[in-house]
Amino acid sequence: MNISSDKKRFTEVYNKESDALFRFCLFRVSDKERAMDLTQEAFTKLWVAMCEGKAMENPRAFLYAVTRNMIIDWYRRIKAVSLESMYNEEEERGFDKADEHATRQIEISSDATRVLEVLNKLDGQYKEIMYLRFVEDLPPKEIAIMLGMNANSVSIRITRGIESMRKIMGFSKKDNE
Fold it and tell me: Domain of 68: which CATH number?
């Protein structure tokens, strides 16, 4: 590919995926500025990969895989910070103003808020898959590609994640029958 076709493809991917990738980051790190930085860095890595001529069959999967790894690395780095230094830092800078657009999207329905709370309570093996499936509306095959799993394992975790959410919310299968 030449640079103009790379630029066109990159722009299409950016326009299509940037908001969803930002929400993915924001959901995982709960910090607007950090989420914006991670999103920008992921797209920078995509651009570099495209310019280097790497085969890019599924740029969306590439972005989510890169972003997921960057989030993991970020959590590993901050894990070493002591609680005392975190407390002092929060005292000095105060709280960030909530992003009104993101807040409005979440508050559209009290049910959606409750579901997100329950989603946060899920075991780690279900949490990310459930988020990608039901918040980002990705099919199990694409989730499998992003996470390096097979589609059957993803489907099983989705089913078990739904069961876990029902238990957390106080519903059981018997109530629905």
Answer: 1.10.1740.10
